[in-house]
Amino acid sequence: RKEVERLIKLFNTLATESRDRFAAAAGLDRNMFRNILHCTFGMMDDMIMDRVFRAFDKDNDSCISVVEWVEGLSVFLRGTLEEKIKYCFEVYDLNGDGYISRDEMFHMLKNSLLKQPSEEDPDEGIKDLVDITLKKMDYDHDGKLSFLDFEKAVRDENLLLEAFGPCLPDIK
């Protein structure tokens, strides 16, 4: 109860700042939310931060309400493995079609990996990584990851939860 009350108090403070800075509706707008993800949780990847925003913004009104804030942070900070699997899959399913496609994997991995100066085309290395990922996680061998594929892979190896980029806070 005390944690929820603190989250609501923090939300109200941040929402007031958001309204003052951006003249937004009641709640947290995308810019304020991304700033929180960056400053508080160290997230750097713009695409992942946008996807996290969408995962929190359940009603798709481009604003995080107090209920979305509390429910989202509940999963984000203290969720069960099952809740985190659903959340991460939602973040990684860029087009919302219920699958993580080869193209979506490529796009996320390209953004999240450090660029190494080398002779080799970096896209080739990422394509190889996508192939390896599909061999490891695509249990039904259809060339894309369904939620069931993702869930099974993560349950077999928890480290795969954030296989396509950091979308959860670290332990600290």
From TrEMBL:
Pfam families found in the cross-reference section: EF-hand_7
Domain EF-hand, residue spans: 44-79, 80-115, 125-160
Single GO molecular function: calcium ion binding
Keyword vocabulary terms for this entry: Calcium, Metal-binding, Repeat
SMART domains found in the cross-reference section: EFh
Highest taxon of source: Eukaryota
PANTHER family given in the database record: CALAXIN (PTHR23055:SF60), CALCIUM BINDING PROTEINS (PTHR23055)
Protein name, per record: EF-hand calcium-binding domain-containing protein 1
